[in-house]
Amino acid sequence: MKPDKKTELLANWQTLQRIFIRPENEESGAALVRYMEQILFGLHDFLKQHVGITREASLKDLSDRFTDSRISQNPSKKLADVIKSIIEDIAPHAVNVSSPYFIGHMTSAIPFFMVHLQTIMGALNQNPVKLETSKVVSVSERQALAKIHRLIYGFDDAFYDEHIQKPESTLGGFTDDGTLANITALWTARNVLFKPKNGFDGVESQGMAAAYQAYDIRRTVILVSQLGHYSLRKAGGILGIGHDNVLSIDVDSQNRINISKLEAAIREIQKDNQTKILAIVGIAGATETGTVDPLPQIADICAEHSIHFHADAAWGGPTLMSEKYRHLLSGIERADSVTIDGHKQFYMPMSCGMVYFKDPVIMDAIAYHAAYINRPGSVDLGIRSLEGSRAATSLILSGALEIMGRGGYALLIDHGIEIAKAFAEEIRKRHLFELTTPPELNILTYRIFPENMKNEWKTADHHQKLEINDYLNHVNITVQRLQREAGKSFVSRTTLRRRGCEDIVVLRSVLMNPMTDIRILQEILDEQEKIYQQQFGV
Ligand SMILES: *Cc1c(COP(=O)(O)O)cnc(C)c1O
Question: pLDDT (tens digit, 9 = 90+) per residue, 385-441?
Fold first, then answer.
């Protein structure tokens, strides 16, 4: 958009000062309030009425609009125009993740109060890296951490009374996202495993080569099921373990880590006394299938061999809020560390990760003291944190926990799990589909598998099965793409890999939007049936 000729905008000291102080008159104050109204109400109404999920436009056309690499010397727009162009030009081509027809990813609608809390966070602009830039916000962050810690571990009052505000204790930490939470957990586990000993100052100071020499080994591994999130592989890379050493263990028919294969892998590794196991990761809500590993059994194995047990509950963690379904995560209270994402099932805006530790002093293994910023014994949260400066997202979580209560979150969790079950039933009823992974939490996968091919499959030999499978993969890729391009609803697609079997392409849905009901899900299946008939019907 070209700036208006009449109101040539100039970068000058006077106007600059105005943007740092409160609007001087009622009129401009009212304008700022109006913009907030536009963001809160106008944006979503507009998307709902005119866009669906996203407006049809090729990525090429869109990229052609963003080719200007110069920063203009003078201001080119006023705030009102910036907001207007975001609402009119960006939002329709972004993805309307709050649509109840958007059931493909872990990003979804958020309650409107999150926008208020996010705005307050921005307005206060606290930096919890140290007390001097956050003060009470650091203290209240510790309270938020204790609340979720208690939800996971359920220690008694005495424990929380002692540790909640004790500067030497750290029940966990906020991170930018789940990836960094997983990295923080494994970083801590690595530093504990290769702690200082005679003649060795610890891996954090001397590095992996020295650690291996001091401990007389050649390799470290992390074990996780084949459904482990790729952030664990990044952790392997970053921590100097090497991501090839993040070993993936097969899953059973329910998509949970195969315990006997896990035990076999451990036995095999332990034959070689030059290899150490850094951690075993149990997934509580796998990204692709929503399934939960047998956490109690993993806990037993880790206890038996003194291995760090990390639970990746980035997705599933908030299930603990539901009295009805929290048993699905039982065993998580035995994990040494736990990852939970705020921007997933706590319905917070992007982004907020968290990591929790059972032992309140284990994070000392990653403590850093920079003279100018935080001194030993201080309450500065930046001492035990991968990030330096960061947003005070704990303010959002604290507010949300108060506004929602356990009961409010439980309603969301219960709805997700129950609507996923109902959706699975609907898929089972329709001849065109096959349910590939039934939901344990609120994620399921399925695929198009026409009745006549199901019959052919029964008598097919190996070669014919390969052919059928290739064809089905093609069908599912096509239908998913055409539905996405039509822009009314969105289901994602992934590939399930089974050792010894063909990779199968499946449609994946994540049911977390409370406005998604069975009627909408039926419409989504109807649309897929229609696309299938148009493209592949005879
Ligand atoms: C989403 C997710 C992560 C990573 O979280 P980000 O916030 O996307 O970095 C890790 N593990 C699991 C199981 C997840 O679902």
Answer: 999 999 999 999 999 999 999 999 999 999 999 999 999 999 999 999 999 999 999
pLDDT given at position 122: 96
The predicted structure's pLDDT at residue 18: 83
In the structure, what pLDDT confidence band is assigned to residue 243 with cuts at 50, 70 and 90?
Answer: very high
Pocket around ligand 1 at a 6 A CB cut-off: 106, 177-179, 182, 229, 231, 283, 285, 287, 312, 314-315, 341, 353
Q: CA angle, corner 151, sides to 147 and 154, nearest 5?
A: 105
Q: How many CB atoms lie within 10 A of CB 244?
A: 11
Residue ranges with strand state E in 343-490? 353-357, 433-437, 443-448
Q: Which fold has domain 127-391?
A: Aspartate Aminotransferase; domain 2 (3.40.640)
Pair 366, 382: CB distance under 8 Å: no
Query: In the predicted model, what is the mean pLDDT of the chain?
Result: 94
CA angle 335, 338, 339 (to 5 degrees): 160
CA of 229 to the centre of ligand 1 (A): 6
pTM (two decimals)? 0.96
CA-nearest residue for atom 8, ligand 1, is 178
Match domain 412-536 to its CATH number in 3.90.1150.10, 3.90.660.20, 3.40.718.10, 3.10.100.10: 3.90.1150.10
Ligand 1 atom closest to Cα of 179?
A: 9
pLDDT one-digit tens code per residue, 54-93: 888 889 999 999 999 999 999 999 999 999 999 889 999 9
Q: Are the beta carbons of 504 and 473 closer than 8 angstroms?
A: yes
Same fold, 127-391 and 412-536: no
Residue 453: in which H helix or E strand, if any?
A: helix 451-459
Which ligand 1 atom sits closest to the C-alpha of 344? Answer: 1
* pLDDT tens-digit series, residues 509-518: 999 999 999 9
Which of 315, 345, 512 has most ligand 1 atoms within 8 Å of CB, for mutation? 315
H-helix or E-strand containing 261? helix 259-271
Tokens representing residue 497 in the block: 């890999």
The pLDDT tens digits for 223-241 are: 999 999 999 999 999 999 9
> What's 89's DSSP letter?
I
Domain extent listing, the chain: 5-96, 127-391, 412-536
**Interatomic CA distance for residues 151 and 164, integer angstroms:** 14
